[in-house]
Amino acid sequence: MDNKKTGEFIATLRREKGMTQQELADIIYISREAISKWERGIGLPSIAYLLKLSDLFEVSVNEIIYGERASKINEGEVEQATLKLLDKVSTRAKKIRRSFIITVFILAVIYFVSYFIYNYNSIRVYVTYYGGENYTVDQGLIIVSRQKLYFKLGNIEQKDDEEINKITLYYKNKNDYITLLSREDLSEITIDLNKYHEILKTSSTSKIINNLYVELESDSTKEMLKLESRLDFQNDYSFAKVFDKNTADSDDDILPDSSTAALSMQDKIKDKFVLKDGKYTYSFTEDKIKYECEIKNDEIHMKSQMISIIYRLDQNKIYIGNKDVSDIYDIETNTCSEGDCDRSMRHIDAFIKHVLN
């Protein structure tokens, strides 16, 4: 279809009727500018105006679209004019629809990729612990997002009974100690990292976490402790691992074996063990016998002056003896799987009662 040819045909039909563009526009209720565009081939009449022009000029719609009156020579082409126009419009609509779908798809991909890149590893959870001359703190927690840092102090054990009345959190940058917060409330603390643009420009989050110091202060003592931390979780989506002693690779990411074991056993031991001098220990007295317990790797060792016990978490069994193990007690079945456990049952019962229950 030739728009210019159609326009010239409309102009010819108008002149044959002795009409001006304005007179034709008034008859079919449209602007003169629209008539001018049709006749110059800039645009085509809609189906409604094609019908009006057909009635007015006494020609078929096919003839207007084709741009000529029908004759024996062009009769077949004239009859196909409308179908060809519809096919052309349909093809154009399909192209527009296809382009629209492709554009939306590309924009969606760009959005989700950008969202993924921005949020990948945007949240990290660190488990913290630290110990000093006057204070020992463990099971602390740091949650880091792009804008905020949430810090929970953890369990505090101190050698005196004085109440801690102030905590100050520092970031050590080379030889400078930058105060991130100082407050008396020792509960959960939120730090707005956006306030520290200069630090963030030159330091990664991992570097900041690895250079945090906590100063604890009571009426008579003040002590600054380096905050040790271990990455426990990061939202890396694809595998979202929880780091433990089997997946951590660097020395900076690994707690002492006792700390790792305490974390893996904390549901069973119910936070009875406390960190002292880098070791998780727990002591109790039963029937005037004092027992000392310590976590080593995935085992709990219990000793007294009378007996030595090793409880293996992966086997859920208690091994009784010293160098030469003679008795093995299966906790799951409550039976002695090897040796004679009767002679040690009061110690086994004490262990189960105070440690595992």
CATH class wording of the largest domain: Mainly Beta
Tally of strands: 18
Named CATH architecture of the largest domain: Sandwich
- The poorly predicted ranges are 238-264
Description:
The chain is an alpha+beta fold and 357 residues long. The chain has 3 domains: 3-79, 434 Repressor (Amino-terminal Domain) (Orthogonal Bundle), CATH 1.10.260; 124-248, Immunoglobulins (Immunoglobulin-like, Sandwich), CATH 2.60.40; 265-356. Helix content is 36%, strand content 31%. It is built from 11 helices and 18 strands. The chain has helices at residues 3-16, 21-28, 32-39, 47-57, 61-66, 75-79, 81-119, 197-202, 205-209, 257-269, 345-356; strands spanning 124-131, 135-144, 148-152, 155-158, 166-173, 176-183, 189-192, 212-217, 222-226, 228-234, 274-276, 279-286, 289-296, 299-303, 308-312, 317-321, 325-330, 335-338. Strands 11-12-13-14-15-16-17-18 form an 8-stranded antiparallel beta sheet. The longest helix is centred in the N-terminal third of the chain and has 39 residues, at 81-119. The termini are far apart.
Keyphrases for this structure?
about 350 residues; alpha+beta; 434 Repressor (Amino-terminal Domain); Immunoglobulin-like; 3 domains; 8-stranded antiparallel sheet; 6-stranded antiparallel sheet; 11 helices; about 30% strand; elongated
Write the layout of secondary structure elements.
Blueprint: H1 3-16, H2 21-28, H3 32-39, H4 47-57, H5 61-66, H6 75-79, H7 81-119, E1 124-131, E2 135-144, E3 148-152, E4 155-158, E5 166-173, E6 176-183, E7 189-192, H8 197-202, H9 205-209, E8 212-217, E9 222-226, E10 228-234, H10 257-269, E11 274-276, E12 279-286, E13 289-296, E14 299-303, E15 308-312, E16 317-321, E17 325-330, E18 335-338, H11 345-356
Antiparallel strand pairs: 1-2, 1-10, 2-3, 2-4, 3-7, 5-6, 5-8, 8-9, 11-12, 12-13, 13-14, 14-15, 15-16, 16-17, 17-18
Helix pairs in contact: 2-3
